[in-house]
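User: Quick sanity check before I run a bigger batch. Here is a single chain. Can you write out its predicted 3D structure?
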Amino acid sequence: MRFRQQLRARLLDLWVLKMLTTASAIAVFFWAYFWVMRHPLGEVVVMPAIGLDWLIGFHPWSFPLYASLWVYISLGTALARNVRELAAFGAASLGMSAAGLGLFMLLPTRVPASAIDWSLYPSLLFLKTVDVSGNACPSLHAAFAVFTGVVLWRELRSLSAPAGLQWINLSWCVGILFSTVATRQHVALDAIAGIALGLATGMAYLRALRPAPALA
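Assistant: Done. Predicted structure follows.
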């Protein structure tokens, strides 16, 4: 019962600020993402597929998992305890986005063309039409999934959440990572690079919120 009470209090605390900052940040990110995609500073390189791509395969049913990233990210801010944690999440997200977008602009990449008839999959067809499979490596979809997974691990731990919720967090993160390749929005190398970027950002976030050592 104590966990539920703490969770409810955490979700209600600063909820207007959390909602507005999250929505605004996502809107600005998408504007920057598509601007960079349309203004590369070099020749766009096609990312190669590796054995892992064929092992994972194409699974159109994974699209809801792919789209669920934005709900997943919102949980990372919704569980923030205070303005300091919310600011740390924002600063880490900004740094990770800047790193990814900078690479997209300087070293533009895209996924290889596929023989799939996208008209058979309306949701994916819309995604392919809008995203045009650019800004491939590193996958910021994968990076944000891993970073958010680290954040939620910390927040759930601070709430003394049941172990099952940590397993749900891990499974959701892995599901999103799987979907980045299974929807053919990215190749495995994009996802691997995104995982590395997300882990690095997550570790920096944890260090930033580490309690200062007590003075002797």
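The CA atoms of residues 3 and 160 lie 7 Å apart.

User: Great, the batch can go ahead then.
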